[in-house]
């Protein structure tokens, strides 16, 4: 029984040792220099926060052509172990710099380097190629001498060496061979001693006797972290530069205006953050293990998928090879048939010519026929023979081979195919689409238009995602609404919520997968449901001066010759008419919104609403703008100027002229325009591309907006005791175009309601 318990205890101890060994082995990766791949020795902290051995950094700078920037030579304190009289035989190969060369280096700023002259006003900045981040890091003018030494990392390396027993026992550096085991170390002397040597080199009554002994070590560090610029102990931390500074650095102009805190505060803050992060990681070890398993599963899937991809590519290439081989066989067969046909024709021609030789063939037969003396028989035989001889004679006189020996017509032009094969590559996913903000807008529906970059692979279809940004944020990831497999490069999003802000994005998809999302686009929807109406040309208009388009969505004022004649007689009391056109729909309840575009070159245009009955009464007979009976308003015909009248005005108009909007004194506060002493008397604002009109029938208020940014321009009261209809007034030349409803566009519709939400 006791033996079983001892065995179980032994097994537990061995398992613990294995875990400790594995943990230490995994930590060893963090203690290796990225240059020499060995444990750090006097590591320096680069500006990119990576570490590198001081000796390795000097070697790298030397390879880059920088000479003398490996650090301040005086920064290395001398030790008894490095003097000629006491140096150990193991260190006899270390050579000291010559005094004359050291003086030259100190006087010249530690040497010269490419691109710098001695005494230059603008010395070259030293760049160090960091092997960890694969980028050049700026070291400043002083090079490695301006970097801090990572003493914490040195201590971790030393503790790791001691835990794994790396290097064995530490020997005394001052003993005669064979050296004894070191029992003490001295940071000031930077050497390890046995008891006798420590007493010998630290005699009583001298300054060295005040040196404090430490444990023997192979790496000596200063007691505290010193400023590389002033050789003073660092006491503060600059949050702006994210750098430790000393008292001298703190008062220098370099850190003027920076946020500097004591190093104790920075220590506590950073330690708390690190402890909190480490506690979170240690408290979620199950999550880490789950993610490791997931990554391992991903690795297995990657291996399988990679092998499948290789097989698919090999199969496709073999298929191409089979097609080429089949094509090669058919082309060779065609050449073979053509060759045999030509050879047959040439062989027949050779036989015919051989029959023309003396004594053979046709010539020999003709010679024998000529020997015939019987005239009737000769005539009978020679008639047919003469035709053959004639044809042979003609062929002989006009000799030409029966077939050509050239096969130029069988040449192949494979330039296009070779180019295609050369450019044969894996199919790439579409690049992020670019949303056309000039054509994308929100009205009764949202019209979204986009395009792919010029050199992007084609997309088979697109995915649209959108969400409202003005709703309270829900806990968890952002929830998007999605529409899949949208064809074309535009879409309609139906039934958007009024008075909301939508953010939209698009991404393409093809056989290779989904591409990146486009940049988010924010769209404001109208503050009320859109009112659809047409321009009514049946009354209140002069057909001579107003021209309404066929679709009844645009109107243009054409004053013509009468206005010119009136302008010529302006000083003699001419009378100019106000031309009015109304909408064919009247509002009797709820809230309504519509938009229009006014030609910036219009002379004077009024856009607004009014009671249908009052509009008919007021504008049935055209008023005269020059007549003393006509009282022009101060920006809108709302009657708001008359403070003594409590009745609500029957009209509300916004005055536009020559690309400007005229706002009266009462409208400036609504538009956010104020002067030095309060609201200005009157002012003008630039005309936006589209104007929006929002009518609240129940509240008896009408608002004029910038239909692009939905910024308020004017808000005024309105008498809504009866039907209210849109109205447009013209004085002189001008044009108005109603905003066309998005639903009339023949585009693909995407209904917002009822979509599955995407996390």
UniProtKB/TrEMBL annotation:
The COS domain, residue ranges: 370-427
Coiled coil: none
Keyword Zinc-finger part of the UniProt annotation: yes
Gene Ontology cellular-component terms listed: axon cytoplasm; axon initial segment; cytoskeleton; proximal neuron projection
Domain B30.2/SPRY: 513-747
GO MF term list: zinc ion binding
Biased composition regions of type Low complexity, renumbered to the chain: 73-89
Main location: other
GO biological processes: anterograde synaptic vesicle transport; axonogenesis; microtubule bundle formation; neuron migration; protein localization to axon; regulation of protein localization
Start and end residues of each B box-type domain: 222-263
Subcellular location: Cell projection, Axon; Cytoplasm, Cytoskeleton
Record has Hydrolase as a keyword: no
Domain of life: Eukaryota
Keywords: Cell projection, Coiled coil, Cytoplasm, Cytoskeleton, Metal-binding, Phosphoprotein, Repeat, Zinc, Zinc-finger
One Pfam entry name: COS
Domain Fibronectin type-III: 429-528
Region annotated Disordered, chain positions: 67-98
Entries under InterPro entries matching the protein: B30.2/SPRY, B30.2/SPRY_sf, ConA-like_dom_sf, COS_domain, E3_ligase_FN3/SPRY, FN3_dom, FN3_sf, Ig-like_fold
Quaternary assembly: Interacts with TUBB3 and TUBA4A.
Homology family: Belongs to the TRIM/RBCC family.
Protein name: Tripartite motif-containing protein 46
Native species: Catagonus wagneri (Chacoan peccary)
């Amino acid at each position: 029984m006791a033996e079983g318990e001892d065995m179980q205890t032994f097994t537990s101890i061995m398992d613990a040792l294995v875990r400790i060994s594995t943990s230490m082995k995994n930590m060893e990766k963090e203690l290796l220099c990225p240059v020499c791949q060995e444990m750090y020795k006097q590591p320096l902290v680069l500006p990119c926060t990576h570490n590198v051995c001081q000796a390795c950094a000097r070697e790298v700078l030397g390879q880059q052509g920088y000479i003398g920037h490996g650090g301040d030579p005086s920064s290395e304190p001398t030790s008894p172990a490095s003097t000629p009289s006491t140096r150990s035989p193991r260190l006899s190969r270390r050579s000291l710099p010559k005094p004359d060369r050291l003086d030259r280096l100190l006087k010249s700023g530690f040497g010269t380097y490419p691109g710098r002259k001695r005494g230059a006003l603008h010395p070259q900045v030293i760049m160090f190629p960091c092997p960890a981040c694969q980028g050049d890091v700026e070291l400043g003018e002083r090079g490695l001498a301006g970097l801090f030494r990572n003493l914490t990392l040195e201590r971790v390396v030393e503790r790791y060496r001691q835990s794994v027993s790396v290097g064995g026992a530490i020997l005394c550096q001052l003993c005669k061979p064979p050296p004894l085991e070191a029992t003490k170390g001295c940071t000031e002397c930077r050497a390890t001693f046995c008891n006798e040597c420590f007493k010998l080199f630290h005699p009583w009554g001298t300054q060295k006797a005040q040196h404090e002994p430490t444990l023997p070590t192979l790496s000596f560090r200063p007691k505290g972290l010193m400023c590389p610029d002033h050789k003073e102990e660092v006491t503060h931390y600059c949050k702006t530069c994210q750098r430790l500074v000393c008292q001298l650095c703190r008062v220098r102009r370099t850190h003027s205006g920076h946020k500097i805190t004591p190093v104790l505060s920075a220590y506590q803050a950073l330690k708390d953050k690190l402890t909190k992060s480490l506690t979170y990681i240690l408290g979620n070890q199950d999550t880490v293990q789950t993610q490791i398993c997931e990554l391992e599963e991903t690795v297995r899937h990657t291996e399988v998928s990679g092998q499948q991809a290789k097989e698919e590519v090999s199969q496709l290439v073999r298929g191409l090879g089979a097609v080429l081989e089949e094509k090669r066989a058919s082309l060779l067969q065609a050449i073979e048939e053509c060759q045999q046909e030509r050879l047959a024709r040439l062989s027949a021609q050779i036989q015919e010519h051989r029959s023309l030789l003396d004594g053979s063939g046709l010539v020999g037969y003709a010679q024998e026929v000529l020997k015939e003396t019987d005239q009737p028989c000769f005539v009978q035989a020679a008639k047919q023979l003469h035709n053959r001889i004639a044809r042979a004679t003609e062929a002989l006189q006009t000799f030409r081979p029966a077939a050509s020996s050239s096969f130029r017509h069988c040449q192949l032009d494979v330039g296009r195919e070779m180019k295609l094969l050369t450019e044969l590559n894996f199919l790439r996913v579409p690049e992020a689409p670019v949303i056309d903000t000039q054509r994308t807008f929100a009205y009764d529906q949202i019209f979204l238009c986009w395009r792919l970059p010029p050199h992007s692979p084609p997309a088979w279809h697109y995915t649209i995602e959108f969400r409202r940004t003005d709703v309270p944020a829900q806990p968890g990831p952002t929830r998007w609404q999605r529409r899949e497999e949208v064809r074309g490069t535009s879409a309609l999003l139906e039934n958007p919520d009024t008075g909301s802000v939508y953010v939209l994005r698009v991404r393409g998809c093809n056989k290779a997968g989904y591409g990146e999302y486009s940049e988010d686009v924010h769209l404001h929807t109208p503050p009320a449901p859109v009112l659809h109406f047409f321009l009514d040309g049946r009354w209140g208009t002069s057909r001579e001066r107003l021209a309404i388009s066929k679709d009844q969505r645009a109107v243009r004022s054409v004053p013509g010759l009468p206005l010119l004649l009136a302008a010529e007689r302006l000083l003699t009391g001419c009378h100019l008419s106000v031309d009015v056109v109304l909408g064919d729909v009247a509002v009797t309840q709820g809230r309504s919104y519509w938009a229009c575009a006014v030609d910036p070159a219009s002379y004077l245009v009024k856009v607004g609403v009014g009671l249908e009955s009052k509009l008919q009464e007021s504008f049935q007979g055209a008023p005269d703008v020059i007549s003393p009976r006509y009282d022009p308003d101060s920006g809108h015909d709302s009657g708001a100027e008359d403070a003594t009248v409590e009745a609500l005005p029957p009209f509300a108009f916004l005055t536009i002229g020559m690309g400007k909007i005229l706002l009266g004194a009462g409208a400036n506060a609504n538009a956010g325009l104020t002067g030095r002493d309060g609201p200005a008397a009157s002012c003008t604002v630039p005309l936006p591309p589209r104007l929006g009109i929002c009518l609240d029938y129940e509240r008896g208020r009408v608002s004029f907006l910038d239909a692009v940014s939905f910024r308020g321009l004017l808000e005024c009261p309105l008498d809504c005791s009866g039907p209210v209809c849109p109205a447009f007034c013209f004085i002189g030349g001008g044009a108005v175009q109603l905003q066309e409803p998005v639903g009339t566009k023949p585009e693909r519709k995407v209904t917002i309601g009822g979509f599955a939400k995407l996390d």
